[in-house]
Structure formats: structure tokens, C-alpha cells
Amino acid sequence: MSVLEEAVIGGCTDGLGRIDEIMAGRSACREFCDTPVPRQAIEHILRVARFAPSGANIQPWHVYVLAGAAKDGVSAALLEAHETSSGEHMSEYRYYASDLPDPYLRRRQEFGRLFYGSLGIAQTDVEARSRQTAKNYTFFGAPVGLIVTIDRRLEVGSWLDLGMFVQNVMLAAAGRGLQSCPQETFSKYHRILRPLLSIPPEQMVVCGISIGRARVQETKRLMPRANVDEFATFAGFEA
């Protein structure tokens, strides 16, 4: 059963069905074409995304929007660092737990098999994996790249708010026929990004987001998702 069919069964009408399709159809694009995306389109996306909820309405996000020569300059600096001094750089926060329990470890391992397998890269091929990682720093060829930061003086609750904002950005982009890719790996090179983008000391680099049009439209979702009964517990509903 398609997501749209489920929406109809669930009582959704055209508008809500469209929202369901956008959410279920969004995926991380890693091969963009160079078709320009106008500034007005990105401004519209951010104007909509800013309505993400945040505790006490503090809106803890900041976005650096890059295109053209500015984006190319950032890409060149990051690629050089990746190729010559990768081991000298580290993110200011930990994305994964050092000891992942199941089912999270199993899902992460499955991701590696599916993702690198789809590219024909053996998981033991360190050089090929590094070359694939390097594509992140060109924003996978996308015409627009975002660098997203958060004020380091805030607490973990604000990271929840930031996550909802980032999701809003990607959904708003999808609603305009654009693809996106959220990229945590930019946080590793915060020491390079900081002077290039005049990022103040109190801001922490969280991630990047590539935005543009896909070079090839994906026809099948690569990564599976857990069924609802695997992560949701219901109580109080009639049988």
C-alpha cells in the first residue's frame, strides 16, 4: 500500500496526502546537477522553515547560505584539509555513541552495507570510502550549500528545536521540487569554516545541507525504515 493510499484510508484529503508524499518520498540526495537555484527560492525555504517549534520561541538556529564562488572557496579549503590533514580535525560534539547497542548498531551496519554496496565500494576499501566522503565537501555538486550552527551556550533541548528546523528546511525544499542532503561531516572542519564564514566563537557548527536538483531521480528507497509497531507503543485505543 502506498503512502498516499494510507493517507486516504486515514481520512486525509489532497493537501495532507501531498504532505505525506513529501515526507515519505524525501531521501538524502548525493548527486546533484548544477542547475542554479535562485536566492529567492532559498529565502522562501528559510522563511517557511523558521516556523519550526522551539522552546520559549528562542529559535536557536543560524544558517550560512553559500553559492557560486563563496561555496567553491569553502569546498576547496575543506577538500584540502580532508586530503592532507583529516586526522587533525574533530567535531565539537559526538554524533554516535561509542558503544552502540542493538538495534542501532545493526541498523548502522546495514546502512554501510547498503550504501557502499550501491556504489560498488567494498567496506574494506578505505581509499574509495575516503573519496566518497570527499564528495560531501563539494556539496555533492549542488548549487547551494547551507552551514547550520547553534549557540553552544544552549542546552540539549535546543538541539531538538534545531532538528525540527533542519527537517523543515528539507521538507520546504522538497515542496519546491528540490532535493537535499543533511551532512553532519561538515562539523568536523569547524576550525576551517569559522574564519571563512566569520562564525563567532559562541556558535557551534552542527551540519551542512546541500540543496539543488537531483542529477538522476531515485525510483526506489535504498534505506529501509522500521515498522510502526517496532518503535511505537499504543494505549487506551479501542480494539
How are the elements arranged and paired?
Layout lengths: L2 H7 L4 H12 L13 H11 L11 E7 H17 L19 H15 L7 H9 L9 E8 L4 H20 L3 E5 L6 H8 L5 E10 L15 H4 L8
Antiparallel strand pairs: 1-2, 2-4, 3-4
Helix pairs in contact: 1-2, 3-7
Summarize the structure in short:
This protein has helices spanning 3-9, 14-25, 39-49, 68-84, 104-118, 126-134, 156-175, 190-197, 228-231, and strands at 61-67, 144-151, 179-183, 203-212. With 239 residues, it is α+β, with helices and mostly antiparallel strands.
The overall pLDDT, averaged over residues, is: 92
> Which strand order spans the largest sheet, edge to edge or round the barrel?
1-2-4-3
CATH topology of the domain at 28-95 and 134-222: NADH Oxidase
CATH architecture assignment of the domain at 28-95 and 134-222: 3-Layer(aba) Sandwich
Low-confidence stretches: none
Annotation, overall tally of beta strands: 4
Key features of this structure:
single chain; 239 residues; alpha+beta; NADH Oxidase; four-stranded antiparallel sheet; 4 strands; 43% helix; globular
Describe the structure.
With 239 residues, the chain is of the alpha+beta class. The chain has a domain at 28-95 and 134-222: NADH Oxidase, CATH 3.40.109. The chain is built from 9 helices and 4 strands, in the order αααβαααβαβαβα. A 4-stranded antiparallel beta sheet has the order 1-2-4-3, with helices on both faces.
